[in-house]
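Class, discuss our next protein.
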Amino acid sequence: MRSFWTVLTLLFAVTARPVEAPPPATLATLIKGHLFELELATTPATRERGLMERLDLPPDRGMLFVFPDEAPRRFWMKHTRVDLDIAYLDRSGCVVSVTTMRTEPPQGDRETEDQYEGRLPLYPSSGPATFALEFCSGTLDLLQLAPGERLEVDAERLRALAR
């Protein structure tokens, strides 16, 4: 009888705790009349992984990097197999800067990780940013997205997801 009550008490303790809902994996977003399905990168691990090793990126897909703070950012193309466009946004959704990032030759057999990383160009934001949007190359031209433009983003909700 005692083990029944122990199990029941443990079961209640586990189920009585509030369960934190996992953040959404993707977000459908309308940008200048074009619908994109954006993967969310809200944790250090997902932001570090980014779009590495992808062999392609459909034109209606992308990734939204969400940081818990606003700071100068810089990205690189480590282990990235497709050219990407990137737009950095401040905490209110205003575009800080945009650029195209080109693929680099993969890490060579005799190249150390440090050597490989050392030869990769960095693509910095031109000011503090809370968000970064990555798309397949050519998307910035299609959207005619330029610094100073403000995108409609639920910045507070997104920042609440960032770890």
The CA atoms of residues 60 and 78 lie 23 Å apart. The chain has one domain: 20-161.
